[in-house]
Each structure stands twice: as C-alpha cells, then as structure tokens.
C-alpha cells in the first residue's frame, strides 16, 4: 500500500514539474518572439531611415579649363563629407552621372534635348538613423553645408518627418506589447510556481514543525526552481529558434543578422525564466512558513 502511495506521489510530482516547465517554456517563447520582432522592427526602421537621403550640391559654374582642379576639390570635399558625424553613407554623383539619371527618369535616350553635363555634380548622403529625427535633421544639414565646396543642401523634409513619425509610432506599439508580454510572463510563471508550492504546503509545514530551519527548507525548492526555470527557458528558446529559422528561410533572410543583440535576447529569456521561478518559489514557500497549521486547509 505504501509503495503504491509513493508511486502515486512521484507521478504527481513529475506531472507537476512537467506542467511548470511547459508553462515557463510557452510564456518565454512568446516573450522571446516579441523580443525578436522588436529587434528586427528596429533594424527595419533604421534601414528605412537610411534610405531617406539629402543631396549636397557643388557649384555648377566653372570654367572648363579648371575641370581638373575642380575635380580634385570635389574629391577632397567628398572625403570630408564621408567623415562627418551625421553621415552614414555618401555617394558621389558626377555631372555625367546626373545627366544619365535625368534622362533615365524622363525616358529620353537621345542627347539632342540635353546640353552635355548641364546638371551639377553632387553628393547623395544617407544620414545615420538618429539624425533623421526632425529635431536633428536641420543640424545635420548645417554640418554638411558648412563643408567648403558645398553650396547647397536639399532634402524632402516633409517626407522625412512623416516616415520618422510613423516608424516611431509603430516601434512604440511593439515596445508596449513587449512590456505587456513581460508582465504576463511574470504573472503566469508566478502562478504556476505558486500552484506547485501549494501542493507541498503540508510537507513544508511538517519540516518546520520537526525543527528544520527556514534556510534548510527553502534550499531544495530554490534549486528545483533554478532547474525548472532553466529547462523551461531552454525549451522555449529551442522552439523560438526553430520558428525563427523557418520564418527567415521562407523569406530568404539571414537567420542571424546581429549576434550581439540576439545573444542578449537569449540571456534575457534565460534570466527571466530562472529569476521569476526562484523569486516566486521564495515568496510562495515563505508564505506557508509564516502561516499556522490551521491556515493550510484554507489557503
């Protein structure tokens, strides 16, 4: 009879542990998924911002005999622009390149309607994402315009402001949902751990009544919480990695684009799983250590 009771208790314990691990894995999978979405949304936002360029123009009026000297000056100016703090990428566009681009945009193949090299040479500048901020774009333009050799800088400020505001709004929503999932992770993992500890409340109180110190009682529960939290986190991360690999293979994107950010996401998921499990275990166990025997029947 005693043997069958022990087997039943062991099965119930295994079932309880499996339930906790699955709960932790599912919650952290969703949390990690939101983290991946947030990371890649930020990357895509930065990519979009880098496509918003400003054009810095050189002086179009100069004598043909000074063309070699002017070309050298423009090359020096281009190198200076590349080193400016707001500049992410700079592309030099010569007069001939500007003329070809104009013909292409107008759908004209003949040179009959164009005088040769009527367009000024320029530099197409992609700003760093943080300088696309409407509050900083004017500052960036002033810095570029201050470079000797640049006579004018033009940009579509209205488009930049609209794109920046829309991207910022989207990122705020995604960040808000990520925080919501973090709160849900805390609540759900805490509830799973509390239910597990609740099933052992009589064992906890019995150990206390026979003279076991609180630290001695807490230790095995904390160790178990660390193990369960780590296992649940790893299962969640493996599932997350599988889903992300499938998704990126379907859209033809790289599985890992930035090792540093993904590494910190893995650390965060592991840390959240273990930390919440341990903290919930301490609070739930402490509650029964402080309660009276009669309270165990009504908790």
TrEMBL record:
Residues 176-292 form the ABC3 transporter permease C-terminal domain. It is a multi-pass membrane protein. Residues 54-153 form the FtsX extracellular domain. Signal peptide: none annotated. Keywords: Cell cycle, Cell division, Cell inner membrane, Cell membrane, Membrane, Transmembrane, Transmembrane helix. Pfam families: FtsX, FtsX_ECD. GO terms for biological process: cell division. InterPro entries: ABC3_permease_C, FtsX, FtsX_ECD. Required for cell division and gliding motility. Belongs to the ABC-4 integral membrane protein family. FtsX subfamily. This is Cell division protein FtsX. The lineage of its organism: Bacteria, Pseudomonadati, Bacteroidota, Flavobacteriia, Flavobacteriales.
């Amino acid at each position: 009879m005693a043997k069958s009771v022990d087997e039943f208790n062991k099965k119930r314990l295994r079932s309880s542990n499996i339930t906790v691990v699955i709960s932790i894995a599912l919650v952290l999978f969703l949390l990690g998924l939101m983290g991946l979405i947030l990371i890649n949304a930020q990357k895509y936002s930065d990519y979009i911002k880098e496509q918003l360029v400003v054009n810095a123009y050189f002086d179009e009026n100069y004598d043909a005999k000074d063309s070699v000297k002017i070309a050298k000056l423009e090359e020096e100016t281009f190198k200076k622009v590349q080193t400016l703090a707001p500049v992410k990428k700079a592309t030099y566009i010569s007069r001939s390149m500007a003329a070809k681009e104009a013909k292409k945009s107008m759908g004209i193949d003949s040179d009959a309607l164009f005088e040769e090299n009527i367009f000024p040479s320029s530099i197409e500048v992609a700003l760093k994402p943080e300088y696309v901020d409407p509050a900083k774009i004017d500052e960036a333009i002033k810095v570029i315009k201050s470079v000797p050799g640049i006579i004018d800088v033009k940009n579509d400020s209205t488009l930049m402001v609209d794109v920046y505001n829309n991207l910022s709004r989207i990122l705020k929503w995604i960040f808000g949902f990520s925080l919501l999932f973090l709160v849900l992770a805390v609540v759900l993992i805490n509830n799973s751990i509390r239910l597990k500890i609740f099933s052992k409340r009589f064992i906890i109180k019995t150990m206390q009544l026979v003279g076991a110190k609180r630290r001695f009682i807490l230790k095995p529960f904390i160790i178990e919480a660390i193990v369960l939290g780590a296992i649940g986190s790893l299962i969640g991360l493996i599932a997350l990695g599988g889903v992300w690999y499938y998704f990126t293979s379907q859209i033809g994107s790289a599985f890992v684009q930035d090792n540093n950010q993904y590494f910190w996401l893995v650390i965060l998921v592991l840390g959240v799983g273990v930390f919440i499990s341990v903290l919930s275990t301490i609070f739930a166990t402490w509650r029964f250590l402080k309660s009276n025997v009669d309270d165990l029947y009504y908790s």
